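## retry 2 of 3
previous attempt timed out at serialization; input unchanged, resubmitting
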Amino acid sequence: MKFQARLEKLLAGGNVHRNLARPALIKACVDNGEALVSACGALATWTRPESTGRSPADTVIVRRPESEHTIDWSAANNLPIDPETFDMLVDDALKTLRKSGKVYASDRVVGADAAYALPVTTVANKALNVLFCDNMFRPVPKNIKKSIFADRPFTLLACPDQKLDPARYEGRLRLDPRLGHTSTMVIAVDFDRRIGVVYGSSYCGSCKKLLFTVMNYLLPAAGILPIHCSANEGKKGDVALLLGLSGTGKTTLSADKSRALLGDDEHGWNDTGIANFENGCYAKLIDLNPQKEPEIYKACFHKAPYTRHGAIIENAMMYPDGEFDLFDDRLTPNSRGSYLLTALDNIKKSSTGAHPRTILFLTADANGVLPPVSKLTREQAMLWFLMGYTSKLAGTETGVTEPKSAFSRFFGAPFMPRNPDDYADLLGRKLDEHGTQVYLVNTGWSGGPYGVGSRMDIMLTRAMCAAAIEGKLKDVKYVQDPYFKVWVPQSCPGVDDPKILQPAATWQDQAAYAERARRLAGEFAAQWHKAYADKNIDAAIAAECPGL
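## retry succeeded, writing output
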């Protein structure tokens, strides 16, 4: 029996609750013991330790002869499985769902622009996963038949709490050293058949990121650039995009009271403008400060009856009285809040906008050598888009911490499966067509590396972002950074001390600064040779790489 017929037979079962009203879906989460009601009314939930974040090593793509040339299999995140193994996963998921006491299903779309909204049916044996998809994916628009994907829907099967039989998948899935045998978890996608399976991962983000990977694969073939970014719009209709990896402040900086939010994570850029993929936000909560990030805090922790609240607080410390401690990371530093866009005060309901006037690339440089704001040329923008640099902090047993450089192409490598020129060329074309200006913003350290210098104050970063977005950096004087080639403003409205703008000027030890800058530039060059030397990237772009 073909997959679609098997799916329809499953959905016709008496234990299936399809497209429940939102209050009923929230109530089911609580009644099933999948979440607790917190003091404010938000749902609190916790996962097994192996599911406190994504599992890249268990995230796989079906490799088929007819489409394998469209995927960059040399990229670390593009892990192939054969079609037969995927068929086994589909069989196991459908079998598990059939045997489940209750099954929940929802019909939503990914994408606010009906011209390319992707219809998605999510089927899970936990109400919580379907509620999460209700938060994150959008209602089906009335004009869905206009979509280029109207006759190519996607199906997501989720069995988050069950585990695969390791013996059945021996030699087919990876050996998990933590378990000492074949992995019992998988997040698998078949782009050709448009089916996804999440099995054994109860991290809600696994469902969201699988679907965004699908969009990031499908859209470039239609001439649409998918971007892992937040987007907001000023009162005059000027749109800004903010790109950045986790911990760079993308969600925080995009929640600007003076600008209407389109979305905080994934967007598409087609011939008419920008459109959000999502219906909600999935924000990191660790150390969330209600004074500095009031919009996110209010969206997650406002008081409301629980059936009307609907925010999901995942893996945060909660005390017996139902209050949260967001500064306690003993469970995980990756605690998350999933909430509807409508929980924010200042949003654009359509989640669509014009072509962006400004793009900000965010990085949290723990070396303390990148300028807090700098202007990029077209080729530099494509270079930094390809590199997707930030720093990650890795602690040692003795407590000594050194920053570790992280390069994630297009600021979202795990979710960008196509060949890199598909994305980079589209960005260059869009910049040419619409005159969009790109800036690099360092939300990381100043005056020295992590442990010596201090992190840029969020309010100061906000001032620099505002100056860039409002066009106030167009006419100031610039100097070129000697190590990273970017153009650094000599003054910035909202920044009283121009010394802050020049990273070398904030270091007491100039020799240490120079050594650190050269070392980071060398890491850029090494990454370029590793990732792009054989990818036919324009030489003019390569020439802008630090260290080359």
